[in-house]
Specification:
alpha/beta
């Protein structure tokens, strides 16, 4: 492994081919909830290995340095950027600028409305697929929820607008990435569903989504918000998610 660049933060490697990135983030500029992303290394048989940047955090100098160190360690460049949540858009233009050759995929048209200059492909709502990721990465939609639990001044969406979010699952490491479906986890506090951001309108569809996620057999879950001591769940993942 190449040593970290001078003055950089050590990379946070969760397991083989999976790294955690973290930055600060204040919800509406008031509440510090942090912002977490993943870097995955994929090595398909028909093309050179490449990296997948999931849910880019703020690209501070420290985070950019970590990304460069990960590229050096992995012997690969970021080739795909994935934003699996419709409310996460602020960091996408900077990520595209840093990796202009990478292909970018976003959860919904909302991401593009919020960032009109962004060039990206929108994932299919019910059958999401990213050809470059092959079978190593699965995307599962959370169905059955709208944004109606939030006032219009907060969401800016018409009544009944769906809340669009995908769970991303890295099969080789059995790692699950979850965006906003749960409140930012805190150490020693039970995981709580984000009822402020997701209004349940179709219980049957939501149950099918939950069953699909639990059926993945994840042994690690990473949440898009929360501090390091709580945002990575490395034991009892299916039970913890089922209880929440």
């Amino acid at each position: 492994r190449n040593p970290p660049s001078v003055g950089s933060m050590p990379v946070d490697k969760l397991c083989e081919d999976v790294w955690l990135l973290q930055s600060g983030f204040k919800f509406f500029g008031l509440f510090q909830i942090g912002l977490n992303g993943l870097v995955l290394r994929l090595a398909p048989a028909d093309r050179p290995a490449f990296l997948v940047l999931v849910n880019p955090p703020k690209l501070t100098p420290a985070v950019v340095s970590q990304l460069r160190d990960i590229e050096a360690e992995a012997g690969a460049k970021v080739g795909v950027i994935v934003q699996p949540g419709d409310w996460h858009h602020f960091q996408l233009p900077a990520a595209r600028a840093l990796f202009p050759e990478a292909k970018c995929y976003v959860a919904s048209e909302r991401n593009l409305r919020k960032q009109p200059s962004l060039v990206a492909s929108v994932l299919d709502r019910s059958s999401p697929s990213i050809p470059e990721l092959g079978n190593e990465v699965a995307l599962l939609p959370w169905m059955g929820y709208t944004q109606d639990s939030m006032p219009w001044l907060v969401s800016g969406e018409r009544r009944g607008a769906p809340r669009i979010e995908f769970v991303l699952f890295h099969r080789p490491s059995a790692t699950l990435f979850i965006t906003d479906h749960f409140f930012p986890p805190k150490a020693g506090v039970p995981l709580k569903p984000n009822t402020g951001g997701f209004k349940l309108v179709d219980a049957a569809a939501a149950r099918r989504s939950v069953e699909s996620v639990l059926g993945l057999g994840a042994t690690r879950a990473v949440f898009s918000h929360g501090q390091r001591d709580a945002c990575v769940l490395a034991a009892g993942v299916p039970a913890t998610l089922a209880e929440a």
